[in-house]
């Protein structure tokens, strides 16, 4: 890579007489003869405009021997006695002849801003909003856990059985011949067998007949390929471009270094590939009628009661019938934890249901969240009120 360097001469402004844009080679103001000092921004040099894309200074480079020698002399120092600026390689003040002391300050300049500054060190600090959100989530989570623990703590309360309720249903089903339709390849002839005492039946597939062609579904058939194209973009090298950096030398001069670097451009190209094309075709198959047997409900009886002994409804069955029984039991319970509340038990078996009798005193384990966790007979005294506050 070709490297080019230039020395650019800066300019300064006299704060004594307000003369502006004095070349750096002048250590004294050409108008009022005051020496350039550190104070009043006199030694803050201006190097002119910078090209935004390349970082190149727009000002011409200097070829003047004296200027190049001054640029090479190192950073300026300021006289302790008269504050005048002096060449870095001189030991004596050009203005008052005082010697340079160990306490003499050297000129330090800020880095010159160029078009391509080094990427600013990004703050990697933890985002504050994330911190707050995290703390919030933790507090909320802790609160939920606390609430869950509190809610699961149980207390014992006295109660009693208020009422019992039962419902018994019997459904009579009959094994009946029905006509159905099915796909020929899914049908296998099987002889039907009638139930004995409602058991051992076989539905069967009999008299497969009347087969006709019907559409069963669709399928995708490849019919060839088609070229599909789209425009895409890629980055390609497209010549070189100049990139420059500038370093201030601390004495009114700046050294600019420029390189030619590979330039990348976006290029649009056409991306093509073959795609298989499909056509949707109907699929046909043979659909047939056949005979089989199904259980059909022909009758239903329901009996229900409160407090009394549960009974089953009577239903007569024929030789091809069967009976299906269903039982539902409810036991309503009241308990008091300050106010009177009700709770419903649903026993699954008749034996369990029969163990609950109206008026039986109970003890209930109830969690803080209001969930009844256990009901045991015995203990406790009867509740006073009959206020219902839900299950
Ligand atoms: Zn002046
Ligand atoms: Zn001096």
| DSSP summary: helix tally | 3
Please give the largest β-sheet. 8 strands, antiparallel
Question: Strand-residue fraction?
Answer: over 45%
Distance between the termini: 86 Å
Mean of the pLDDT scores? 88
Provide the descriptors you would attach to this structure in a database record.
single chain, 391 residues, mainly beta, OB fold (Dihydrolipoamide Acetyltransferase, E2P), eight-stranded antiparallel β-sheet, two-stranded antiparallel ribbon, 3 helices, 9% helix, 45% strand, disordered C terminus, binds zinc ion, transmembrane helix, zinc ion binding, metal-binding
What can be said about this structure in brief?
By secondary structure, the protein is mainly β.
Structural write-up:
Residues 366-376 have a biased composition (Polar residues). GO terms for molecular function: zinc ion binding. The chain crosses the membrane at residues 129-153. This protein is mostly beta strands. It has helices at 65-71, 128-152, 350-354, and strands at 3-9, 11-12, 22-23, 77-78, 85-86, 154-183, 206-248, 253-306, 321-336, 340-345, 361-367, 372-377. Among the domains are: 1-118, no CATH class; 154-167 and 326-377, OB fold (Dihydrolipoamide Acetyltransferase, E2P) (Beta Barrel), CATH 2.40.50. The chain is 9% helix and 45% strand. The protein is elongated, with a radius of gyration of 51 Å. Residues 14, 16-17, 19, 29, 31-32, 34 line the site of one zinc ion (ZN). The site of one zinc ion has 8 residues, from loops.
